[in-house]
Amino acid sequence: MVLPDEYNQKMNDRKAIYKLYAQAIPGAFAIQKVDKAPCRLACPAGLNVQGYVQMVGQGKYKEALQIIMEDLPLPGVLGRICPHGCEDACRRCEVDQPVAIRDLKRLAADQFDPREIEIPKIDPRDERIAIIGSGPAGLSAAYQLARKGILSTIFEALPKAGGMLRVGIPDHRLPPEILDNEIEIITNMGVELKTNTPLSDDLTIDNLFDQGFKAVYLALGAHKGITLGVPGEQAEGVRQGVDFLREVNLSGSAPVGKHVAIIGGGNVAIDVARSAVRLGAESVQIIYRRTRTEMPAWEEEIQAAETENVSLTYLAAPQEVLVTDGKVTGLRCIRMELGEPDSSGRRRPVPVPGSEYDFAIDQLIPAIGQRPDLSSIDEVDGLEFTRWSTTEVDPITYATGREGVFAGGDLQTGPWVAIGAIAAGKEAAESIVRYLDGVDMTAGREPIVREEPVYRPVPKDEPIAARAKVQELSPEARKGNFNEVELGFSEKDGQAEAHRCLNCGYCCECYQCVEVCGAGAVTLETHLEQRELLDINVGSVILAPGFTPYDPSKLDFYGYGKNPNVITSMQFERMLSASGPTEGHVARPSDHKDPKKIAWFQCVGSRDQNRCDNKYCSSVCCMYAIKEAVIAKEHAGDDLDCAVFFMDMRTYGKDFERYYEGAKAQGIRFLRSKVHTIDTVPGSDDLSIRYVVESGELKTEVFDMVVLSVGLETSPEVVAMAKSLDVDLTPANFCDTSTFAPVDTSRAGVYVCGAFQGPKDIPTAVVDASASAAAAGELLCEARNTQTRTAEVIPEVSVTGDRPRVGVFVCNCGINISGVVDVPAVRDYAATLPYVEYVTDNMYTCSQDTQDNMTQIIKEKQLNRVVVAACTPKTHEPLFQETLTNAGLNKYLFEMVNIRNQDSWVHKNNPDIATQKAKDLVRMSVNKVALKQPLVESELNVDQTTLVIGGGIAGMTAALSLSRQGYETHLVERSGQLGGMATSLYRTWKGEDIQSGLTQLIAQVSAEKGLSVHLNAELDSVEGFVGNFKTIFAADNKKVEIEHGVTVIATGAGELTPNEYLYGEDDRVLTSLDLDRKMLADDAVFGKLNTAVFIQCVGSREPQRPYCSRVCCTHSIESALAIKERNQDADVYILYRDIRTYGERETLYQKAREAGVIFIRYDVENKPQVVKDGDRLAVRVTDHVLGLPMEITTDLLTLASAIVPYADQQLSQFFKIPLNDDGFFVEKHAKLGPSEFATDGVFLCGMAHYPKSIDESISQGKAAAARAVTLLAQENIFTSGEIATVDPQMCSSCGVCVSICPYSAPGFIPEDARMFAGKATINAALCKGCGLCVASCRSGAIHLNGFDNNQIFAMLDVI
Amino acid sequence: MSEWEPKIVAFLCNWCSYGAADLAGVSRMQYPPNIRVIRIPCTGRMSPKFALAALRNGADGVWVSG
């Protein structure tokens, strides 16, 4: 079955069996299931309706029948006459009409002969069962027993088999040959059928047991009509409906009058009427005492009867049969009206007094019901019957009071539907098998009722699709014959009808996946696996539930969901992805053409409390929109016109401002505007956008596509989870945290990270993740290493000097490789290659049993080199290397050949060439592996002492965390006090007092045992590498030498001293920190000032400093509000370029506007002017809305001056850690490694990385500690074997390797060394094995283990 | 005689291009089967000697990607 692929934002489809985590390696599949579909639950026999409907939809009729015939041996019969309760339960009714399930079942049986369905053979058992009655119950029981190897004999009283199916249903609804064919299915299995053999004095139940039958199943049906109980009923011309139908069905005809009246409202009455019409009656009238609404006959049958000129009289009941000369001549009826509902829930008919009327008829056929005829069994010992003549049985086992005798079908229920009898027969068969086996007949058979079943939600946008109608014989063609009226679906109509199924249960359990899974991973058993609930004892919980993208369909003016060319940014992300629905091709959804113009709308579902409830900024959308525009241009070419419609551009992250400027230079247009309306251009799928620019001018532009930059929000599920965990949320539903404990939730021991903590980008989320790990690590320090296990070490066999003995293992990967590549040919070819001693091919080389086998083979054949030709080493090399290790071989004596990802999968249509390629690649690898040598992974101790450089907030946090996690820590600070920049800060944006938080932190640091603080420290020298550093510094004029395993760099950044806006020339011109210091000192100036002005981006976002200082917007707004608090009447102006109050800081911006702070935007080309006119200080700026210059006389001017890094070159060289152009340190990976350096053992936090707020500095401080602990906790680390080594005799000491290595691994052997002084040497601990030095070594002195020249030449020799 | 097909030796960086070639397979992209991939730990490992050796051994082209 096909479902929208959520991973690709529903832009393409997936199956119910799918890769749940699309990008996980190795990928595992999951099957999406919920409760069984309602159709299946509604079916008395529990047929897997969804399953066979899906199969019919795919034209897999045989498979459909296989599913149906699990439960039902008569698909063609029930496909015609079943009253289809399943269709009443169909949830398609919520959209339009139910799926025509019954007709689809018939289509399957029409298209494939059910007799051809192979029924799994099972060894026959000796026991035989007697079944009385060959109706649906008897046939079903015989069928299900036969499937279990138990054969039966069916005794049928009538001359033909089929019970009511045969004699109760006229041929125009069920052609007899269909029934004959399907009974054949059962007799073909070895079931014996004896017709004309009623129970009698000569054939009693006792006789049957005496004859050796081990059990008896009574399924006699209900064939005795119920009389009306009115005078005259004995007259000639009165006949029971069931008797009439039986005669018609057995002989093809029955006596029929000219004017026939039929009493009753069920299907029997209709069948009688339609048969009477066919037999030549002139008028046929059905008389029913209630109205059509209450009529139990199916609507389609009633309509068919009407089409065939049957008249229906409602609200009338017979009172007397009028008889002349013993023959029926008329009928007296009385009018009825509906009274109160009776026990059946239908309104009770009540006679209308005095409304009797007579009319002439010559035949009366009552069809008001039937009962079982008990005459042949009422004497049987142990059987009991109800007052409705039905047989008493155990409701679960269908066992009667007599041992070994079971009963079912209409005999037990009274007249009911055929599928009910089918179900009863199946249940009886189960009981009989258990009875014969002598096991509990009831165990596990209690019905399970799901109170609130979970189904796939009906898709909101499910299109209306009318239910298909089957072809019917024209009314004229029906006259005088019993030809079948309904002709069934054509294949095309039927398949379309099947596609209307909503797949309520997701997986339809067709088990086609089980059929095709060669690995035996998907089986009937694994199909049943469900989510497991596990109880785990934990000391801490980390919440990382992430966010959900805002759903823009709530905002109808964007046209999302209406115009297909309006998509979300998440959809566009998938479109750009090489693994996405368009494989990275930018195509507009409506026509798949290349768009020429794409517009991005910012702040969809963010910064908006009018149209949605998300007041906050989602933090990431500006940046991702720019990225998407840039990549779109990369994919689609420079001609693509990209325009971003935005309010404030918030590129506040590291290097983001540069990227923004780069995007502008690439021609991406940024339109500061408000979008007014979006209309589809008539006659096309283009979009016309009307928008208002800053000056108030209204513009219109047409685009091919619109991308909505949707915001981030917390899903209702996560809100519920937070509630159940008793964790507090902010008003915006993010996790509530405080500035000084940014990963602590309101519940002790529960920590948070990622976008649940607040909307944030990847690097910030990664920092949080490490920080929360540190928080948990601090809490659980004592439990460290209490639950670890140690792997067994297998001694390594020496192969040095041995002739290579290569084993080649070629993988089939099921059919992934063998479906294209001739695997046996590759295997046999490998055997011809030099040094190859053993070859084989495996179905799945990575399976556990093959691994065990390989271990044995390596030992037995004394292999000393192994080649696996299979998938990719990127995922599987470690696995096979472990196999080598287990076999006692050095794991580097291994090569992998990629014949799947890079061969069979990409050359599907060229099996011959793909096979040749596989042989070539195997040949190359065999040549290489022979030259491979065992490599040593040297072990390094990790010194358990740590050094943190920088005593600001970040450094103190890192030091405290390391110490709390059990590591002796030294914190060095260049100044005479701890606290760094925070000592000058007044208040956080959340209103917290920074000085009290700082004091507390310093107190904790001072009190922490195992944490030594060194003030007034100056670094002198640093030696060593990961795990083994030696740092010498002077602190308070004393020389200190520390050996440490890791280093955390937290040297911070400072404030720019502005050289503009009269700073330093007028006391009223301050920096942000100056202002905070005045606030801290509670300066008198605030009480009396009339006006205060802030100028933003002083020194930031300018050519000489092209980065955003990130914190200044929030800081100035917070300060503006603090001024307003002190002096409500003061006029406060903030002159800004873009307000960058990201995340929930946006609420502060809003608060400031509400408080009357005036925001005026300026352009960098037209910066404000500060003038001094006598004592008067004034700021001149051009108003961004009016476009007119204005002058503000002010008492205070605060410059939000840039944060500038110390750009410490010495530190950079000491620890071999790079600085970027701006002077900030360069982390290992901008997204995934923000708190560590590429140089192992050195970590990074705080403003030395980039400007950041206190909470972000604290997170990163903890994060650096967490990253350091991952190294420290290992105590010993192993270097890779695949590293560079120097042959000192060849080395010319040129130093190219030393200068070229990005990891500073090469160095010179000291001049005073005993041997090879001055030659290069490579530190194994630092070498990453990239080979840069090897390629650049002009003397050929450097070798790269595992990729050495001779090995690569060996491959090239045999290309 | 069948049409001439070039043989191209591809030196792919383990971390990017080799991974990309794997992804091309996962995505079932189809491309001509003329390349023979040699995985190297980084294109920094690439030496001019490898290109020369490839050509000397009969390669019609050398592709370095990383």
From TrEMBL, chain B:
Q: Does the keyword Flavoprotein apply?
A: no
Q: Which GO terms describe its molecular function?
A: iron-sulfur cluster binding; metal ion binding; oxidoreductase activity
Task: List the keywords (alphabetical).
Answer: Iron, Iron-sulfur, Metal-binding, Oxidoreductase
UniProt xrefs under InterPro entries: MvhD/FlpD
Q: Residue limits of the F420-non-reducing hydrogenase iron-sulfur subunit D domain?
A: 8-66
Q: What are the boundaries of the signal sequence?
A: none
Which superkingdom?
Answer: Bacteria
Keyword ATP-binding annotated: no
Name the chain's protein.
F420-non-reducing hydrogenase iron-sulfur subunit D domain-containing protein
Q: What is the lineage of its organism?
A: Bacteria, Pseudomonadati, Thermodesulfobacteriota, Desulfobacteria, Desulfobacterales
